[in-house]
Write the structure tokens for this entry.
Amino acid sequence: MRYRIGFTPRAEKEFNDLPRHVQKRVVRWFDLLAENPRREGTKKLEGTTELRRVHASKDYVIIYTIQEKEILVLVVRVGHRREVYRRL
């Protein structure tokens, strides 16, 4: 079963503001998450019950949640690791 990828408005803006070479890496991860959102390399965020994260590169992180009923991976934030965790 393949999941759809959705974005919050904030995540969509953050993705569009990323450098092109980073966007390419992030898109590859979107494809992998659509196949298996709980794949190796992803982790649950501490202090939350539903948010997960994956490092798309050394410095960029995707924060997302899995919505099983809709078969959807909802991207909540995407950005540099020093900024992405602020104001979740």
